[in-house]
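To: structure desk
From: M.T.
Subject: fold request, one chain
Message: Could you run this one when you get a chance? Sequence is below, nothing fancy, just the single chain.
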Amino acid sequence: MVFRKICNDTSTMSATELAHNFVFVKNREAWYRDFDREIPVRDLMREICAKHAAPADADELTDEELDEILYDNLQFGTDDLEGVFALLYMALYGMTDVRAWLERYETTGLPTTNRPEVLQECVGTYGAEAQVDMAVEEMSELTKALLKYRRKAAQGSKDLEAARENILEEVADVIIMLTQLIMIYGGRDLVQETIENKVDRQIKRLANTEGETGSEVAQEVLQPAT
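Reply: Done. Structure tokens follow.
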């Protein structure tokens, strides 16, 4: 059975999958779910706190009052139930955010490897210069694959699918090499910041693209800030 990092239908989840998906964002709020129900995390905490009288009036508190009290109760640590429940609340909210980030990455982020140490070992074994050369070669192969696919008018459906699969394979090779380039040159934070800046510029450009060709707009957006 394939383990799914992100899933939403509890009727199809394994216990392990539920353990990674039992909190989630719904209506811009943290929610809890199990195999029997789903409920806002605040209401879950009201239920737990009221049952154990810690605090006893939790089910009568507004959302803001509940948040404030549970935040304040963190001072008790694990010495009493009020502190334990405050820690639980903090953990549930934190896990909700982390799952939302993972879901966004799994949906739109570049695929990556779970074994980055292998790529780091490649840099150490073969040398940075050799890996940079390999990155250039792989990007060239991707360019060739894209140009081949563009000639689709002269290809049958079978050839077209083969060309598409070739693109995907070359994309995988390029991602592997891009990961190594960041290992070689560092600056991961700068790369992330630059991506965000360029996407912000793209948002502004998209609002003013009428009458311009897509290639002209894209080239302008991707120009260096300097």
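Reply (cont.): The mean pLDDT is 91. Let me know if you need anything else for the meeting.
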